[in-house]
Amino acid sequence: MNLLEILISSLAGSLILMNLTQSGHQIYASLDQQAAKVTLQSEALQALQMMGEAIQMASTPKGSKIPRLMIKDSASMSNAQAGQFQIRKGSASMDSSDAFFTTNKEEEMNYRAFFVQMQGHHQQRDGVLYLQTKNKKSQLQNDALIGHVQSMQIQAGFKQNGSIQWYEPYQISERASKNNPHWKAVKAIKIHLKLQKGRHSLELEKIYALRHPSTNP
């Protein structure tokens, strides 16, 4: 074998090795993408299930003036008083993420609230979905449910002319009004979650009907 044949053979081997390396990177990237999507989907479905249970079981406790469900635009929950929102602006609002709470006649889980908040520092900052409840001493506590949350957008559905019409939280009145629907008339909730893990993203939307009517007129 002369020098030219050796060079040609080496070049061919290098090209084959480059193709194998490139294919390996593509396979790894594909597997990484699939693993990230599975993780994000699993986390999102877990969170949606918990929020759905709270929504579907919402009912106003007897004698309570607090509605069975309320949503607030670009907000988190107060750590001082149940059912109180904290309005946030800018990057702290987590892409204008909404927050909501539900009440229930059952004493064990009579209050549940969900909101998104950024935690961590610098490059390790991550959006976290929190569940706020009351402990046995009726003190508020926040438990992290899932990470990688970019935003949570919520709409409320009202039955009008035989179909469900969707409203943004700011369009709903906290007092009786002829011009705007009232929280007590909410029939369904639509939740849109956006998650991001590295370069991989996922968006899920789910609609839940409120099963139990309010005990208040």
From TrEMBL:
Domain of life: Bacteria
The name this protein goes by in its record: Prepilin-type cleavage/methylation domain-containing protein
Species this chain originates from: Polynucleobacter cosmopolitanus
Organismal lineage: Bacteria, Pseudomonadati, Pseudomonadota, Betaproteobacteria, Burkholderiales
